[in-house]
Amino acid sequence: MADSVDLGKCFEIINNLITEAGRLIARNNETRQEFVCKSGDIDLVTQTDQDVEKLLMDGIRQHFPDHKFIGEEESSSEGGVKKLTDAPTWIIDPVDGTMNFVHAFPHSCISVGLKVNKVTEIGIVYNPILEQRFTARRGQGAYYNGRRIQASGQQQLNKALVTSEFGTSRDEQKMQVVNENFAKMAKHVHGLRVLGSAALNMAMVALGAADANYEFGIHAWDVCAGDLIVREAGGVVIDPAGGDFDIMSRRVLAAATPQLAQELSKVLTQYHPQPRDD
Q: pLDDT tens digits for 117-126?
């Protein structure tokens, strides 16, 4: 099926759509956004989330009416799917870092990945506020604003700058694990950063600005693009327990090297989110 999908055309079209959607985000970031709560008072959605997702999906449908979608907001239910199939499927987070966005903190992004036969072929993470665009196509390397990028090559945990997040759930059991891992990181790593965007955290690993990133409770749309971008930059993406990465598992560990990934996995307290446990 991959042979029947014009990936060059897909890449060109989604880049153009993301540029257009980015203007909307950048313009709206100038004022604090009205929002509603989804699953709790820290799981937020704005009108911009919904407008951006609609812009991207409508634009893709014009060119590829048979393609499927997995997206964060409700509009994804129209033509959207809950389970990944072999069909060309766009996995979209219209605004990753919504909490940042509603506070006008300039660290949020659009994240889009395209899977064909369940293999990620295209990944784009774009922060339009600071004009940071990370792109990758399978087998063609990773790029930051058009410049080829490479993961840091760091192998030692005590020299690693690591990113993670609190996430959008304040479930007591999950928060216990999150805080336990933060305490462990404080002892074992060079530095820890919590900047509020899962997709940008992974992009930072690809850029070499961070050495590793882990998170429990993410969704496919948070990490689909970042997964490809990290791997195309020479990094690795695995399950936080050390096994193979499953994009639907809601668990991720990205690192500059296999050695660093495994060392970090041995330190982490594990948590297994339920499919609907936000």
A: 999 999 999 9
Burial of 8 (0-12, 13-18, 19+ CB in 10 A): exposed
Is the Cβ–Cβ distance between 220 and 193 less than 8 Å?
Answer: no
Least-confidence region, from 62-66, 71-75, 101-105, 163-167:
71-75
* 42 close to 36: Cβ distance less than 8 angstroms: no
pTM: 0.94
Question: Can you tell me the distance from the alpha carbon of 127 to that of 136, in angstroms, rounded to the nearest whole number?
Answer: 15
| Residues 6 or more apart whose Cβ sits within 8 Å of residue 263 | 155, 156, 157
Q: Do the beta carbons of residue 117 and residue 124 sit within 8 Å?
A: no
Let me know: does 253 contact 240? Beta carbons within 8 Å: yes
Contact 217, 169 (CB under 8 A): yes
The mean pLDDT value for 9-35 works out to 88
